[in-house]
## 1
Amino acid sequence: MGMMSFKLALVLIISGVAYCNGGTSSSYVRKTQASTDLPLSVLSSPPGYNAPEQVHITQGDHNGRGMIVSWVTPLEKSSNFVEYWKVDDDKNKQRAYSDSKEYSFCNYKSGHIHHATIKNLEYNTKYVYEVGNANTTRRFSFTTPPEVGPDVPYTFGIIGDLGQTYDSNQTLEHYNSNPKGQTVLYVGDLSYADNYPLHDNRRWDSWGRFVEKNAAYQPWIWTAGNHELDYLPDYGETVPFKPFTHRYHVPYKASNSTSPLWYSIKRASAYIIVLSSYSAYGESMRVMFEPWFVENKVDIVFSGHVHAYERSERISNIAYKVSNGNCTPVLNSSAPVYITIGDGGNIEGLANKFTEPQPSYSAYREASFGHAMLEIKNRTHAFYSWHRNQDSEAVLGDSQWFYNRQWYPHEESSTAGTVA
Ligand SMILES: [Fe+2]
């Protein structure tokens, strides 16, 4: 089944590669100062006593018939279920019960964090769901993906390093305005709460409230980044990823993974592998994984961490070992395209210092905030586009038709800067 799909890998890569002359560097110059976080007062809790907040969903099984619904009740545990029904059948309401947990971090104590997994949903069906209690309920909806298959059209949004600034808001609003997006591939670095003293975890809550306008309606496929580590041993916080793993559940057991930081799912026409660069990161991770990407014809690798946008040619560097010094990436039609999309708009601002001259592996690069869309059309073709925040959604800052490496391994051509 894996051979039938577009293969995508999500990873937050820490170290990059550097070498020789290449494609297009955008001449667009934008402000480079750090962005400002939205005030907590803007990202406040919804009205009503103990109102459920920070509602978000993600795929809850391997094939797309499950959904994990998550929410936080700030004051009391109740109620511990989500009620759901098909949009045209509200006589048949069903419930899935949640596990809820609290955690503390330094001087912070969380609300009750609920996760309920809904199973055996029908494919390609719109469901309404409701969380809360007698006093305050909140209602949302989602649409399940079509059954897994090679020719199922399906569109992903790709967002990374979002944070919760005015620029982050522009990115999220921009993505929200695109009616094609069905699921978000999120490449790590979520709230940037660790930018605050003692990693003020109220900023994890405000981030959950911030992304709810999309994440309660579309599943976000989560990848962990370095800003999820929250490791503060001097203050007794010695369990890495504690806030992240309490708040964001993923279906890692469905792919026989032993860690929520590593898992895979199938969704419509995509086979998505989520990797974490916090086990064996950097060069050792590249040495381990790059040959597997090439051998298995991974179509695209999406990464975050660097706060800019860059798309590579199909290149491989698998001949390189530290011991032989043969460090020259070469064009390889079985290799993935590597896309860095850490330009969601977080508080750290843009990374605008590129390797000069532009390396040969680099097809397009630009230091602007934005998001990307991947429209899988069928087993052979997918249309990819990158959208700058400062443009209207119809403007494509960068785009490429992708040809599936398994079914149609022909050379692609890209068209940076075209308008739809
Ligand atoms: Fe980041």
## 2
Amino acid sequence: MEVILADNLGFCYGVKRAIQLAEDSAAPGQVTNTLGPIIHNPQMVAKLAENGVGTVDSLDEVKEGTIIIRSHGVGPDVYDRVEAMGLNMVDATCPHVRKAQSSAKMLADEGYQVVIIGEKRHPEVKSIIEWAGDGAVAIETEEEADSLPKYGKLGVVAQTTFSAPKFKLIVERLLDKSSDMKILRTICTATDQRQSAAMKLATEVDLMIVIGGKNSANTTRLAQLCSDKCKTYHIETAEELRDDWFDKIKKIGITAGASTPDWIIKEVYKKCQKK
Ligand code: SF4
């Protein structure tokens, strides 16, 4: 079977950095936890746990040791609380997310009404809202943009992983909401690159396998985009591949979300080659 990997797939810079920081933080006999799963990939989270890096959902569960802030980032209150609790902190916030957070704060400090274009329930967007302060709002559709009132000064930032074309469409709908508008396009290129490579490959193969956490927004999006072009399956591990998917298939394309470890991609690649 011919199996082709997308030109861009798997761990992005921010995730690689976060995993490295987490691995480096593990020390025998010491308590080390990430605040929330380090990435949206259950297999990687389990592997870190085996090496002594656990996961807590809240600082209330922590009494001592090291707390790792994941690449999605957190609001300023968490930094204050970690300091007050006397915990050791390892900040693995992706620098691109940090830029979106500081851009939102800067706009708010300059008196702009901050609008974040992104998924409201995503931890990164929540953290950006917290840096921007109480009045900030998050929107993710053109309809939500239409429903906003007019503002004296309007500042816009993006969730780093938001779709670039959709960001543009929503911004266009915001243009008549203020005569003083500042747009900071805080979108990270890793997402664009993975999406473009996946869509290109999906037009060249009979079947796409998209690998990554079922709870990973960027992997789910990759699967949606590929399914517009060809038959597509979203899996987390090689064990999920089923023989009947490959009937009459000559070429398989593989892509993976930004939080999918290399070892899982390799396993899936090898198994597909044997089909
Ligand atoms: S997708 Fe971009 S912003 Fe998000 S962690 Fe990766 S490099 Fe950072």
